[in-house]
Amino acid sequence: MTTSAAAPEQDAVSDFDDYVRFRSAALLRTAYLLTHDAALAEDLLQTSLAKAWFAWSRIEGSPTPYIRKIMVNTYSSWWRRKWSGEVPTEELPETGAHDSAMNHDLWQALGKLPRKQRAVVVLRYYEDLSEAETADVLGIAPGTVKSQLSKAISKLRLDPSLIEGAMA
C-alpha cells in the first residue's frame, strides 16, 4: 500500500521531468527573447522551472502558459529591482579637498548656533530622528523642534563661512 501512495508522486516527477526534457528548448527561447542574454535566459528558465515545480500538482491543463507567466513575472521583478544609476568609468572622480574644508566650515557654523538649535539640527539631520523623537529626547514640544530647526537653518544659510565655501 505504501508503493501505491508513492506511485502518484513518482508519476508527477516523471511528468515534470518529461515536460522539461521536451519543452525546455522552446522555453529557453522565450526566456532569451525576454532577456536578450544567454546566461540570464538560462537563469530565468531555471528560476521559473523551480517555481513551477512547487506548483506542479496544482497546474491544470497545459503547463506552458503557466510557466511563461512565471517567466514574465520573474523577469519583470528582476527588471524592477535592477538599478542602472551607476555608470562604469575608467577614471574615478576626484574627491576634492574642498569637501573636508566644507565639512570643517559646517562644523564651525554649527558651533555658532545656540545650544538648543544645534541640538535640534544634530538630532534631526545627523542622527536622523523624527520631529517627535527629537522632541522626546530634548524634552520639548514638536512645534518647538520645528521652530528651532527653522531658525537654525536660516542662520546657517546666512553664515559667511558657508556662503564663501559654496562660492569657491
Describe the structure.
The structure is a single chain. The chain is about 80% helix and about 0% strand. It is mainly α and about 170 residues long. The chain is elongated.
At a glance:
The protein has 168 residues and is an all-alpha fold. 78% of the residues lie in helices and 0% in strands.
Labels describing this entry:
0% strand, single chain, elongated, 168 residues, disordered N terminus, mainly alpha
Report the mean per-residue pLDDT as an integer. Answer: 80
Please state the structural category: mainly alpha
Number of strands: 0
Please trace the helix and strand order, writing H or E for each element.
HHHHHHHH
> Given the structure, what is the number of helices?
8
Uncertain runs: 1-8
